[in-house]
Amino acid sequence: MAATLESIKKEIVAQQEAQNGELEDLDIEGIPIGQFDSQSANLIQTHQNLISLSLVECQLKNLDGFPKLTNLENLILEANQLDGSAITYISKNFKKLACLSLADNKISKFEEIEPLKQLKQLQQLDLADNPITQLPGYFNKIFEIVPSLQVLDNKDKEGQEIQYSSEGEDEGDEYDDLGGKDGDEDDDEEFDEDEDDEDEESDAKPVKKNKK
Question: Where is composition skewed (Acidic residues) in this entry (predicted)?
């Protein structure tokens, strides 16, 4: 347990420094927490500004003793060993959740999803690689159970895959591959044809490139 505590401390310190001392996003992966005790929970619980918490492959079997974080909006608990009792706990303690991922756990029954009705702000849920996904009518049933839900397993209600863009990409998308704004390509070509003879020997003007 001492080694686990030290590993958690190191992650918190490193990520807090990377976020200029204000820890709002904590990502812990591969640390064998198993179950939280008061010491491990307090390491995280002292950071009440946390908005996003990710605990992936941490061998969590239940959420007993889990840190109380009143401002949490995003919770990722992928690749653990959690069953429906975890959903009950989450629904009681994290009322501001908008995004919840329980992918690759042991959720197996529709009844286990019912408590999520209490999370009025929950818009995105990931249950991929859980036994429940094999039940008949799974996809539509989850949307029925959780009315606020907009995205399930990275798909919208119509079953269309959600495409996520990186920050700043929208601005770059306003420009085509040649650097002009969408819809302006024809005008640019016409201008180039009219001025081609006059500007043949002049330097090319710089164009705005797509952001990568």
Answer: 167-202
Query: For residues 93 and 48, what is the distance between their CA atoms, to the nearest angstrom?
Result: 14
Write out pLDDT tens, residues 48-58: 999 999 999 99
Other CB atoms within a 10 A radius of the CB of residue 175 amount to 17
Residue 67's φ and ψ, nearest 5 degrees, are: -55, 140
Distance of alpha carbon 48 from alpha carbon 63, whole angstroms: 18
Start-to-end C-alpha separation, the chain = 43
**What's the pLDDT score for residue 6?**
97
CB proximity list for 118: less than 8 A, separation 6 or greater: 91, 92, 95
pTM (2 d.p.) = 0.77
For residue 117, which amino acid is it?
A: K
* Alpha-carbon gap, residue 84 to 115, rounded angstroms: 9
Return the SS3 of 141. Answer: helix
